[in-house]
Every structure is written in structure tokens, then in C-alpha cells.
Design brief:
single chain, 2 domains, nine-stranded mixed beta sheet, 6 helices, 9 strands
Length: 245
């Protein structure tokens, strides 16, 4: 490709140089320029859902050196229109996405939006901060929070769902059936350390997928907790947000 375009072949920048380049990116100004010239921005509007999403930057891992992780960008992506805003960068080999996400929410005085994120960020400190600053969260619960996951499973075994939703889609050579169950979750029934997180609702999403080509079938169940009170129209909102993430 380089020879076809008549360009000079350049040496790929080193990991250290690439890190310096990223550190020089003023992503806040970048977001402002996108807003000013292209109308691309994410505003904190009550009721609108944003997904916190970390992605490896393509092409920055040197396979010859044996590295499996490289530079990552953390974005906040609107569920509805998929517009994104850069929150920061981190080196996956040395650092964690959690630092960038924590710093973002810590920098805010008041939150107006609703946020969905992976189990990596389901921590007491982050849920407390989002709740205390007025934000809404939908947090995935997995084995990294063993006791909380155990409580979620216990609730599903002993309580009847308040609401149930389901969707059926047939796209890209697969049939996908999703069922969402909404249950009330009393934070007082959990360990006292979760008290300030104000967990109110438990969402269970059951996903069944059948691939048309080989009839392969998969079945998985995911658990989510939220500080949003389960009342009229909230159930479908959380179910849709889990899928939108």
C-alpha cells in the first residue's frame, strides 16, 4: 500500500513514543471541537443512557515482543445515537480502565445522566459516588463480586419477578431470544458496606441464541443491579438499557 501511494516507509513508533503521543492529546478540547464543528457531543440529560466502554486501540500491540495488551481508550457512548465522548486513555499492560472511569466520576460535582457499565466497574465506591451525585447506574454483576452475585442468585430462587419482558430477533444468521426479569432488591438485606450504593432493583437477562448455519445453541444468564426504583415504565427502560450496552 505504501509503495502504491508513493509514500516513504516509516518506522512504527515505539510503545514509549506512542504513549507520549496519547498523553499529548487534549481529549477534552477534542470533544469540544467535535461539538463546535460537527455537533457531536454527549450531554448529561436526565433519563438518557450512556455506556462506559473501554477498547484496545487497533494496531498498537507488538506481537513480536510477546505483549498481549496495549494502549486503550475509554469512551462514553450514547445508547440511543451511538455518539461517543473520550474519557481518557490507559496502558492495558500496566494500568486499569477503572482508574480512568473513577477519575471521570470523581471530577463531577453533580450527575444527571444514567450509566451502564461492565462488571469490572461494579465496586462499592463507584456505585456510591454515582448515587450520591444524583446519577443512575445499571451495573453488571459477575464473579468479581462473589458475595453480591450470590445474593442475586439467592433472590431469583426465592422471589417472584415483579415484571417480565422479552424480545425475539432473527438477524445475521442467528435467532436470539432475550427474557428480562425485574425483581425488587432491598439493599438493607445485603452486607452493610453496600448501604450507600442504594441498590433498589435486580435485573436478570436470560439470553438464548441459536445459529441457523449449524444449529449451535447457547444459553446464558446475566445479572444487573440498579439504584433506579422499580416503578411504572422503569422495567422496560432497564431491560432496554442492558441490551443497549
Amino acid at each position: 500500500m505504501v509503495s502504491c501511494l508513493g509514500l516513504k516507509r516509516r518506522k512504527v513508533v515505539s510503545d514509549t513514543q506512542f504513549r507520549r503521543i496519547l498523553s499529548g492529546v487534549d481529549y477534552q478540547t477534542y470533544n469540544e471541537l467535535n461539538d463546535a464543528h460537527f455537533g457531536i457531543s454527549i450531554t448529561e440529560i436526565s433519563g438518557e443512557w450512556k455506556a462506559i466502554d473501554g477498547k484496545e486501540l487497533s494496531g498498537n500491540i507488538d506481537g513480536l515482543s510477546g505483549k498481549k495488551r496495549g494502549e486503550n481508550v475509554v469512551r462514553m457512548v450514547s445508547h440511543e445515537d451511538k455518539l461517543s465522548q473520550i474519557l481518557g486513555f490507559y496502558n492495558g499492560h500496566k494500568e486499569s480502565e477503572k482508574i480512568v472511569v473513577s477519575a471521570y466520576f470523581h471530577s463531577k460535582t453533580v450527575l444527571h445522566g444514567s450509566y451502564s457499565f461492565d462488571a469490572l466497574h461494579t465496586s462499592i465506591g463507584l456505585l456510591e459516588e454515582i448515587n450520591q451525585k444524583g446519577g443512575i447506574y445499571l451495573a453488571h454483576v459477575k464473579k468479581n463480586q462473589k458475595k453480591l452475585l450470590k445474593e442475586c442468585i439467592h433472590i431469583t430462587q426465592h422471589m417472584i419477578p415483579v415484571e417480565k419482558y422479552q424480545t425475539f430477533d432473527k438477524v445475521h444468521g442467528r435467532e436470539e431470544h432475550r427474557i428480562g426479569y425485574l425483581l425488587l432488591m432491598e439493599v438493607k438485606a445485603l452486607n452493610t458496606k453496600w448501604e450507600n450504593s442504594a441498590i433498589k432493583t435486580l435485573l436478570i437477562v436470560e439470553r438464548k441464541v441459536r445459529r441457523s448455519k449449524n444449529a449451535h445453541f447457547s444459553h446464558e444468564i446475566a445479572f444487573f443491579v440498579s439504584n433506579k426504583e422499580l416503578k411504572k415504565n422503569v422495567g422496560i427502560e432497564l431491560f432496554t438499557a442492558a441490551r443497549g450496552h
